[in-house]
């Protein structure tokens, strides 16, 4: 069960993309996701594709690995592409297969949609591939910090996120232990009708939930004992600091953005 | 004492969000990954409901919100348009927590052994949570396909069928599991006070 279960997509590495501050990466991807909807010709898509591919190669993660991660996405990309070929009837007839005519507008639209979707998924994947979940949390916390002024519980949310991330592996082990214990008593989760399988999960869920409640109690008590009382004046073990690379990448991305707006029609 | 229950609240919600993520990942044994475009029959909502019925609306909303966030940073993100991503990752799971409107009635029913009361309110609360989440995925689906599918595709119908399918089964399974689980949990974990 746990062998195939890897938490998150993070691939350790020491590339420039890996070393960037999470805030830099989040900001760039945030703008990328919005700006891609402004692309309106081949050249402007080309600029964005260039940026995405450049980022991908810079991570030094095996391309085959990245593409494998995008597997569930290929289906929808190909599906929408074919759908466009079948339905859209703009422009002139390019060629016909079995008396079915493919229009140039359909081909263009289909390619555009597929390209946009692929680029979006690729860029967002690069964030989770090169950044640990915990540094994404730290980054988001630091970026949302101004919201504390309006009493938005930024610190509490980030703390809870860190606790969640910390406990996923622990709870995973717990689940495995309980399911083995129950399996040894003859509980079968994997075969039988849906109804029987649902019934079989109960002896797994009850101890799992009870132990989660107990862990929460213990952790809360431990935090209390150490005098935890909210975010005010709390120091951090991992401090985020913008480096020169971040400035460089920011300027580079801004230049790409300028070029992008010149290529639009 | 009041402070203690606040820390316990934070920690419990955090751990149950982790549990939600875990159960969601392990739900494959129910139907396999049949839904190719994200979403599938899953018992991931179960911890959200349990927190909603223990701590009320606030607990439910927070558990759902964190669960959505965990999926965004740990999973394969499905960001097709900004609106769709916001709806599917932040709003959809958060609104499940609104099931907590009936927290008081369910707790009273369970503590007083009034089976009719807690059973009916659990059905009601869970249906509301499931329905609200479905609406989010449904709207996100329309936004998604309006952007990506050619004009003239029956977008509304497709989103209804696709999201309605797995959401109705998941909600049904959650209701059944809550019937079996809630009475089995120690009483001190049922109510927050």
Automatic annotation (TrEMBL), chain A:
Keyword tRNA processing attached: no
MF GO annotations: transmembrane transporter activity
GO CC, any one term: plasma membrane
Membrane topology: Multi-pass membrane protein
Subunit structure: Forms a stable energy-coupling factor (ECF) transporter complex composed of 2 membrane-embedded substrate-binding proteins (S component), 2 ATP-binding proteins (A component) and 2 transmembrane proteins (T component).
Function of the protein: Transmembrane (T) component of an energy-coupling factor (ECF) ABC-transporter complex. Unlike classic ABC transporters this ECF transporter provides the energy necessary to transport a number of different substrates.
Protein name: Energy-coupling factor transporter transmembrane protein EcfT
Organism: Salirhabdus euzebyi
Gene name in the database record: ecfT
Automatic annotation (TrEMBL), chain B:
Pfam families: Thia_YuaJ (PF09515)
Cellular component annotations (GO), alphabetically ordered: plasma membrane
Chain segments annotated as transmembrane: 7-23, 35-53, 60-80, 86-106, 118-146, 166-185
Keywords of the record: Membrane, Transmembrane, Transmembrane helix
Gene3D superfamilies (UniProt xref): 1.10.1760.20
GO MF entry, a single one: thiamine transmembrane transporter activity
Domain of life: Bacteria
Protein name: Thiamine transporter
């Amino acid at each position: 069960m746990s062998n195939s279960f890897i938490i998150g997509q993070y691939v350790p590495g020491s590339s420039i993309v890996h070393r960037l501050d999470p805030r830099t990466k989040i900001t760039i991807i945030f703008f990328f996701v919005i700006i891609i909807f402004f692309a309106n010709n081949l050249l402007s898509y080309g600029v964005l594709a260039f940026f995405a591919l450049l980022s991908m190669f810079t991570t030094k993660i095996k391309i085959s690995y990245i593409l494998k991660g995008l597997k569930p996405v290929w289906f929808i990309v190909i599906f929408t592409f074919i759908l466009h070929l079948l339905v859209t009837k703009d422009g002139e007839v390019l060629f016909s297969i079995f008396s079915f005519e493919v229009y140039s507008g359909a081909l263009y639209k289909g390619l555009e949609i597929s390209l946009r979707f692929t680029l979006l998924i690729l860029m967002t994947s690069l964030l989770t591939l090169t950044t640990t979940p915990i540094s994404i949390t730290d980054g988001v916390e630091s970026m949302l910090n101004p919201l504390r002024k309006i009493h938005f519980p930024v610190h509490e949310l980030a703390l809870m996120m860190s606790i969640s991330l910390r406990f996923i592996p622990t709870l995973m082990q717990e689940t495995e232990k309980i399911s083995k214990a129950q399996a040894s008593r003859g509980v079968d989760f994997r075969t039988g009708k849906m109804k029987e399988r649902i019934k079989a999960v109960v002896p797994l869920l009850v101890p799992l939930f009870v132990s989660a409640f107990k862990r929460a109690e213990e952790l809360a008590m431990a935090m209390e004992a150490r005098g935890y009382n909210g975010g005010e004046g709390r120091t951090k073990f991992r401090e985020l600091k913008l480096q020169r690379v971040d400035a460089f990448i920011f300027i580079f991305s801004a230049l790409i953005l300028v070029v992008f707006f010149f290529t639009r029609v | 004492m009041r402070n203690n229950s606040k820390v316990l609240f934070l920690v419990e919600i955090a751990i149950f969000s982790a549990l939600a993520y875990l159960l969601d990942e392990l739900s494959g044994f129910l139907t396999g990954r049949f839904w190719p475009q994200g979403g599938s029959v899953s018992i991931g909502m179960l911890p959200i409901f349990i927190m909603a019925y223990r701590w009320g609306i606030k607990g439910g909303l927070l558990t759902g919100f964190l669960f959505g966030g965990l999926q965004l940073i740990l999973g394969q993100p499905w960001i097709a348009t900004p609106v769709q991503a916001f709806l599917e990752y932040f709003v959809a799971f958060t609104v499940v927590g609104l099931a907590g409107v009936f927290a008081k009635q369910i707790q009273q029913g369970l503590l007083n052994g009034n089976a009719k009361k807690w059973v009916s309110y659990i059905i009601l609360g869970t249906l509301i949570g499931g329905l609200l989440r479905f609406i989010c995925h449904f709207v996100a689906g329309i936004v998604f396909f309006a952007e990506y599918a050619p004009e003239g595709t029956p977008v509304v119908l497709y989103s209804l069928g696709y999201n309605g399918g797995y959401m109705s089964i998941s909600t049904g399974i959650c209701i059944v599991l809550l019937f079996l689980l809630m009475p089995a949990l120690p009483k001190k974990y049922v109510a927050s006070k």
